[in-house]
Write a structure and sequence with these properties.
Elements: H1 13-64, H2 73-82, E1 102-105, E2 112-117, E3 143-147
Antiparallel strand pairs: 1-2, 2-3
């Protein structure tokens, strides 16, 4: 006797392709979201680092009458750490291959500017350049800068 129906077990090729496509699309969305979350977290740390060093510089000035005049971020953070204004280790960029932080001070030691190059758009925060003109030493669109109060 001929069989009137086939015993269908399993999935068709089209069904497997549809499921695989959906999984690939969801995975791609997850990877993009994860990458953006990492960038936002690193940018958040950069902003926090700028504020931490700014506060340490203000304390330094209240004790010494002026800001450190060496226009080098690593030198001033080492001085602030050894002076007890910052806890070790000194704040550094969370991404080793990324650019370092920047520091500038006027010749009188009365105004300073700290900048960090962000991975995402930093225009929502402070921008480079200010009324005192100290932040003009750096260029870039994604800078987050803090200045002396």
């Amino acid at each position: 006797m001929p069989k009137k129906y086939r015993n269908n077990r399993g999935f068709t090729f089209i069904e497997l392709l549809v499921v695989a496509t959906i999984i690939i699309i969801l995975s791609a969305i997850g990877v993009v979201s994860f990458t953006e979350a990492g960038k936002n977290a690193r940018d958040g740390k950069r902003k926090a680092d700028m504020e931490t060093v700014r506060q340490a510089l203000v304390l330094y000035r209240s004790d010494n009458g002026e800001y450190p005049k060496t226009p080098n971020y690593n030198v001033i953070t080492n001085a602030l750490t050894s002076g007890g204004y910052l806890s070790p280790p000194a704040p550094s960029d969370p991404k080793a291959s990324h650019t370092l932080y920047s520091y500038s001070v006027d010749s009188n030691g009365t105004t300073f500017c700290l900048c960090a190059d962000m991975e995402n758009d930093a225009r929502s925060g402070n921008s480079s350049g200010g009324s005192n003109g100290i932040c003009t030493f750096v260029s870039g669109e994604n800078l987050y800068c803090v200045q002396s109060p």
